[in-house]
Input
Amino acid sequence: MTEVAPGFADSVDSVIQALSGQHYVTERGLATAVYLAIRLEKPLLIEGEPGCGKTEIAKVLSAASGGELIRLQCYEGLDAATALYEWDYPRQLLSIRLHERDRTTTQLESEIYTERFLLRRPLLRALEGKGPVRPVLLIDELDRADEEFEGLLLEVLSEFQVTVPEIGTIRASTIPLVILTSNRTRELGDAIKRRCLYAYIGYPSAEKEVEILRRKVPELSPHFAQEIAEFVGRLRTREDLAKRPGVAETLDWTAALLALREHSLRPETIVETLGLLLKDAHDLETYGKEKVAELLAAP
Amino acid sequence: MNSGTSSSALGSRLESRVQGFLDRLREQGLRSGLTAGVDLSRALSALPLLDRDAVREACRATVAKSRAELAVVDRVFEEYFGSLDLPVTPPSEEGKLPHSRERLGRTPSGANAPAEGREEVEEELHGRYSPVAPPPVPPRVRLASERLRQYRAGARRFRRSVATLAGRRWRSHPVGSVDLRRTARAGLRSGGEFVELARRNRSPRRADLVILWDVSGSMREHTTNLFGLVYALHRVVRRTRVFAFGHDLEEVTSLLAGRSYERALPLLADRLRPTGGGTRIAHCLTEFRRRHESEVRGTSTLLILSDGWDLGEPNELADQLRRLRGRAYRLVWVNPYAAQARFRPATAALQVAMPYVDLLASPEDFPSPHGPARRARSAVPG
Output
């Protein structure tokens, strides 16, 4: 097994420490899933609430291990040509034109379908990693891609190989650490889930959010961090919200409050900056000054 | 805690029980196959077996494949390994990071206490009992095979009529993007000369369905037929999410996926048993929007299966429907009484809903070739 990085995956605790060193505060459950993904060389599928650190963990793992981060952002219509490989058609045509006089058609055909004319997309690049450290392949928001795209991933994720009909099978010599994320906009297929370990990231507890805030925004006072975390926590419990704020929104909001030189929460400032927490027009309309004051005063 | 239990002895006991644990999970509706078993065994060999939380986290990571399944794994883990003398995890050395014990509700003494996160999922799975109405138990009555075939044929017609997503396969077409591969191949035949640009495109062949199925007491007598219809739609339209609602909302897609009608029926009946307390359509739609709104896109057809008897505020329902209609491609309301000649959308909920509904249909319309498929195609989006 290729090491992710020396000492990085010796135990669940070492994973927690490595993530913590990158200011990523994690639950033991997620750290266990990451540890097992490294040890078992299996992809890790992470689902969870938006803005709670699914994508971030791949970036942090890459930074902590020193492995290259290769990112594939999924979207509807994503296909093999964008995710896996594509032939460099303009170069192939140019080559045909250059050699059409001194080559037969068969010769031309065998020459233009070689690795020289292959454009490597993220999945293939991740499989061709040759360094001592495993690259980190982030397949982000897989639920946005078509279901058929999942079929394309099956060979990559289970065998860590890709078959290019014109060339043959390209097999990874260094198994990448694969992190897949999904916002659950649709249910992923069973075949893909079967090949992955699974972890879920929910909203953090107030204590955890305070710790995240203090790690990410060191200039924040402990008291203000507590106030912010408790307010956001109360906001998340509201049934009438269309979209609940994630940790990313809390961090943006905190940065805005500090930029406005605030040192404690006031209803006026909250209302003025609430757009950084709530991303739905109806939610913003609902939460006026009175409702915010009521929420702020709630035990 | 039995400190004398050696790790190897515990390991052999654990391994011998892994298969039984997986069997128990399968009985609870999880499709934990051979791969999950192999993964779990490998995971256990990579973790300290004396650490109860580590074993539980290994089970969660390797066997569960969704948030709902995490809750099932937790429950079965407690039931199945409860008797196995696993000590709790020693406190973290750093003492800073939140420990899984707190999250899973296990106190240092080893007693079980339901944790916050877990309670939330449990509620999501089973709903809450309320004395307002008798709990509806979906009957386990099977539909005749012929009827199921009719529903499936109707579902196929319906899929074609609301197809919004391009099929995977590219087809040669005079209009569309340039097909470089075919152009290059053709160029090869003419000595590398670009004589003609080949083009291709993808026509819409797939649909995107979100089904909101009212399983409250007033719909009880229609459950058998509606389950047949829901099952057929889920089977035929690959991108289908199914949510059951009554007093609360719960997703049931995973109970249908990959299962035969005969296997899915008792699972669904078991899962829906504890819900009750009257229908709260507006509340459930609000909950649906909050948790799953992003699943309704411009390509999605939203199917609401309900008789329209609602305890909530009609204005709130209208507001939720307006918002959902604004996001969806079509909104189809399937009312079990809609086929009756004397039927009028007279309930307060249906009256406020009608302006946002593209098509009002009955389950009995689906088997008919002239049913909702044809009418959905011609329904004008709002």
